Amino acid sequence: MAEDDVFTFRDTKPTPDMYHVYDDSQKGNNAPALVLDHGSYHCRVGWAVDPNPKLTFRNLMAKLRKEKGKSDVEVLVGNDIANFEAVRFQLKSPFDRDVITQIDTVETVFDYAFSHLGIDTEGSINHPIVLTEAVCNPSPARQFMNELLFECYQVPAVSVGIDALFSLQHNFSKPCVDLPTSLVVRLGYQTTHILPVIGGKCDPQGIRRINLGGLQMISYLHRLLQLKYPSHLSSVTFSRAEELIHDYGYIAEDYLEELSKWADGDFYDSNVRKIQLPFTPAPTAAETSLNLEQQQQRRKENVKRLVEINAKKREERLALDEERLETLQIIQHQLAEVDDALAVKLLRQAEITDEHHLEQEIQNIQDRVSRTRQKMAAAAANLNEEGEPKKPTETAEFQEWLEGIRKQRTEILSRRRERQQRRQELTKRKSAAAQERMRILSMLAKSGGTGPGKKKEDTFGMKDEDWDIYKAVSKDGGGSDSEAEQEKLNDLESALKRYDPNFKNYSGASSNVGEGGSGGFVPTAEFYQLHIGTERIRAPELFFQPSFIGSHQAGVSETIGYVVKLYDSETQLRLVNNVFVTGGCANIPGLLPRLKKDLLSMRPFESAFNVNIAADPAGDAWKGARDFARVAPPSAFLSRSEYQEYGPHYFAEHHASNKRFALTKQ
Fold it and tell me: What is the pTM of this model?
């Protein structure tokens, strides 16, 4: 890679899924089966007669409130979520370590899938369902799923199978035929599984799970980048860390040897990836002077628009208050003419308790109406008083005016420097400002209770005197530079640039004092670049060394060696003769050479082994389930009658499913 090669983030937004047509060929007695690869990262949904899934979307849901303070919520699923970072804390997954724990989220996801497939049958889904599930899926999770499909969607039959075994079947055998003896390594989004397949079926005694997957790998890279670039915390998002893994991550064949290569300057320069964050260069002096009039005009337009908006709001409030005042005055006149029962009814309709409350409310509204009218008159009078100071015509007056402009600018900059200095003093624990602030806070804390263990009601802020305490606490904090002050400073400096030829000689003090430490730092594009070096191998190495994040679990290679040693030597040879890797994380470059190297070090001298990666590690699970749905016999499905007879925990066992164990009563 050339030294000047700089990449950018794609920040790809998902495309909303289209609504497909549900035609007559998909209805009736010979209706095709629905295939759902219900993964913890992607959910793939399609018909068994199709070569590829109709829908592929993130298995996530987000509930958003349309307006603050209202109960209306908007539910977004999968590709309908345009920006994952904007709703990161509202995202909800149905899974916890590949086990379904949020059945309501599953229902929302299924509603989304069935509606986008165009299924419009009333109250039921008249198609058999082939569904993938995790290895050794707990019985309660399967029970929730069966209840949802049979009770809510009224499906005629359900068949569940392990996604990794469906992928193995698609790559090495025909549907509904015993699986070849293999050691399946499934690298998922939340967990990793090692599955020994012996005698055509998965051996549950040898299955091992590592609570680590793509999610932990992305989180680890995200933390590394935040520690490396603390000034760009908001720009280094979780989604961008995921993009870096997909585009630039790779697995080192020998991690320590690869690290030693990165220590070489030439190797680093040729392999580091420079990623440019969004950056807007600071305008030059010429551009600033050219755009000065435009900025002033825009500022005036903004001020005018805000004044108009405020005036409109005041008019609306004034109309409501006048209408309310007229209603209350009518009620006040009627009280003397009606009996007590009708008077109480009139007061209740107006949300008034008694006559004294009525008089007080009328007085408050009259005062409010008067203040609103005064504000409207003042706003109309001051509409054209803002902007750049006007230049006097006489020479003597001009020099005096210019000196006044310089003095006002100097005063604003001095106040900013004082505020910055006070803010810096507050960071020092032993400074006088910090100690005075802590003294006032401790006094407030002591006055918060009436005795040991007692705490009175917190009414701070309800009295006008409390504002004096707040000002006493915050006065030493320096506050922040207000927008009004900044606009005033901009107006003064624009006048000086126009009328004072010596302004550039004494304008060394920046107008942005306090915003960047010394005030002289001008950020460049290089300052907004991420250099991805050893992070390219550190994050994927997590699969082989979980200790990077403090986990005591074994890595993938170590777990493979442990599982293989559970069997006799003949079975070991058969297992390692086909180590099959599947799952989305199997797409990371360098995985195959690394597994071969680790197996070579584990196996006896000159013993044979073979490692294969699925043709489509992420999509072969759906394709294998599709192949199974086309030719599976009725015995491979749990029918509605069997569900009603045996209960929701029951499922039909077949070559690619989990093993069914009889439930014992305690």
Answer: 0.69
